[in-house]
Prior knowledge:
The chain is α+β, with helices and mostly antiparallel strands. About 40% of the residues lie in helices and about 30% in strands. The protein folds into two domains: about 5-85; about 100-205, Immunoglobulins (Immunoglobulin-like), CATH 2.60.40.10. A hairpin with a 2-residue loop joins strand 7 and strand 8 (about 170-175). Helix 1 (about 5-35) packs antiparallel against helix 2.
Amino acid sequence: MQRSTVILGLLAAGVTIALITSIGGFMILAESQSNSNGGNDEEMKNLLKEITEMKSMMSKMSEKMDTMIERMDVMMQRMDMLMGNNMMNPTDDMMNQEPQDVIIKMKSPGQKVQMGKEAEIVLVVLDKKTEEPMEDVQVLIGIERGSSMSTMDMMGDMFDAEDKGSGEYIVRFTPDSEGIYTIHTMVMLPGRSMMDNHMDFGIIAEKGK
Ligand SMILES: [Cu+2]
């Protein structure tokens, strides 16, 4: 998806909102007019009924519009994440380097989490050569608000993922806003630096229902 598509979408949403607002204004006018006329005859009653129905339709529409705008916001952030990954600066290079001795992956790729709710993300660590699960290793986690190296706004201190056995390690955190979070993951092996076996995972937190 192109950025221009999203911008077009936002424009369309803006025009629709303007339209709804002006129709709303007209209706309020019509209503007050009918009130001052007494509004007792049948035709006026029907008209008022129609206006009321339209009004409730409109409020439903504007609710949908709010959701649309929120979604577009998240889409824009996602796009920034994708574009950010293409940037070539030394830090991003380091962040994108493949792990030397291990394979690190998310058990449920593309997993989404909910804002304000504790998220549980399961990481799987395998030996790169044998592809066997790696147990009893330290998996150090740092959670950044935003895409990798975009904000460096870390949620608290780094911590160890919980060793669940069978090469599975659990990361728990509670997103405090919607949008993207990066799980900086470092598998600590003897004689290796923390960046030698490192991997970033992007997670999207959505507004709770
Ligand atoms: Cu990282």
